[in-house]
Design a protein that fits this description.
The chain has 232 residues and is α+β, with helices and mostly antiparallel strands. It has four helices and 14 strands. The strands form four sheets. The chain has a five-stranded antiparallel β-sheet.
């Protein structure tokens, strides 16, 4: 069964590679462009869990790789192209969701990195090429570390977070892992106007939540995300 799962994953990764090779996206690369002084910032608290230290380990690995990518105007940032395959011994096993089931998996916790990058991109008004919300809501209002609807789940070979730099300036995502909180930065060579982003949700029924993301600056509804409640 494990062999079959890995074979399917490799097939998906290869198919994605071919699609990108013949597609129209120009992906960003590792490059050095000096120091950017303009920034947009989002901070999230860490919630206590038995696997928190392993999650921090994974986030630090991702942060070290992501910061090396500078995105030129018109280029696309891909989370997995920057982070790489999480199914390696470099990444620790931490909490994650697979098939709607909460379990330990290598690279668990990386969705907090993709989520905070997504949130930064919304504030900057960047073009979201690919983003998926989680199928289930893991948290209560007391344990929630980010607004419902600001998440971006990623699954290597299947689901990516892709963001296009539709500005006229160079940008770079940077992540900082601290003891009690996690901070994401979007650095830019020139200032980027900030959008006021509002997240709200309503209970559709006993087991379903609907979250809406609104750009208060433009008045546009950006996304509508549906979640099942996870039994605590």
């Amino acid at each position: 069964m494990q062999f079959v799962r890995w074979s399917k994953l490799k097939a998906h990764v290869f198919a994605n590679y071919l699609q990108d090779a013949f597609g129209s996206y120009k992906f960003c690369k590792k490059r050095s462009c000096g120091v950017f002084v303009n920034k947009i910032e989002v901070t999230q608290p860490f919630t206590a869990s038995a696997t928190l230290e392993k999650k921090k380990h994974n986030l630090k690995l991702a942060a070290d790789r992501i910061r090396k990518y500078v995105i030129r105007p018109g280029e696309v940032f891909s989370f997995w192209r920057a982070v790489g395959n999480p199914n390696t011994k470099q990444f620790a096993a931490s909490r994650g969701i697979r098939g709607g089931v909460l379990q330990l998996e290598r690279g668990g916790g990386l969705c907090q990195a993709s989520g905070i990058i997504y949130h930064l991109a919304l504030i900057a008004g960047l073009q979201i090429i690919e983003r998926y919300n989680h199928s289930k809501d893991l948290y209560t209002e007391e344990t929630r570390f980010c607004p419902l609807g600001s998440d971006a789940t990623v699954a290597y070979g299947y689901r990516d977070l892709r963001i296009k730099n539709n500005t006229d300036t160079l940008i770079n995502f940077s992540l900082e892992v601290c003891d009690n909180h996690f901070t994401g930065y979007l650095f830019s060579k020139e200032p980027i106007p900030k959008h006021e982003i509002h997240f709200e949700y309503q209970v559709k029924n006993d087991n379903l939540l609907e979250a809406v993301t609104i750009d208060k600056t433009s008045g546009e509804i950006l996304t509508t995300s549906i979640y099942e409640r996870l039994e605590q």
